[in-house]
Amino acid sequence: MLQAEYILDLQKQLTLLGGESKKDSNGTLTEEESITSMTPTDKIRSQLDDAIACECPFCGDLMIREISLPFILPGEAHEAASWEIRPHNIGAQKSLSLAV
Questions:
Q1: Does residue 17 belong to any structural domain of this protein?
Q2: Are 24 and 30 in contact (CB under 8 A)?
Q3: Which of 12, 27, 61, 99 is 20 to 30 Å from the Cα of 80, by its Cα?
Q4: Alpha-carbon separation of residue 37 from 20, 25, 34, 42, 50 (angstroms)
Q5: Buried b / exposed e across 7-38, counting CB within 10 Å, b at 16+?
Q6: What is the pLDDT of residues 48-60, one digit of tens each?
Q7: Is residue 45 part of a domain?
Q8: By the 8 A CB rule, do 21 and 28 touch?
Q9: What beta strand segments (E) does the chain contain?
């Protein structure tokens, strides 16, 4: 949960700064710029990228914790019942034969 809070905090900081970065449209620094000349916005974006990239969405800690949770919660049983596929009265339906 700490990682999620850290990511949310970085997103808030980025929103509050809202400034333009010195990055090209593809996200890389321009040739004349170095890491030391990054704006605060760029630094926060870099931290945010690192925080997001460190957790694998398929096998990271969050996914491991979530996998043990039920797909349908006990309070949602009535909704799951609405997903049932029921056969229709076939005799009342008209059928068209297609010539092959």
A1: no
A2: yes
A3: 61
A4: 14, 18, 5, 10, 19
A5: eeebeebbeebeeebebeeeeeeeeeeeeeeb
A6: 998 888 877 777 7
A7: yes
A8: no
A9: none
Task: Give the CB-side neighbour count of residue 99, counting CA atoms within 13 A.
Answer: 0
Residue 58 resides in a domain: yes
Contact 3, 27 (CB under 8 A): no
25, two tokens: 């449209």
Highest mean pLDDT (candidates 8-22, 28-42, 70-84) = 70-84
Grouping H, G, I as helix, E, B as strand and the rest as coil, residue 59 is: coil
Cα(13)–Cα(4) distance, integer angstroms: 14
Which single residue is written with the structure tokens 């004349």? 32
**Domain of 6, in residue numbers:** 1-11+39-70
What pTM was estimated for this model as a whole?
0.42
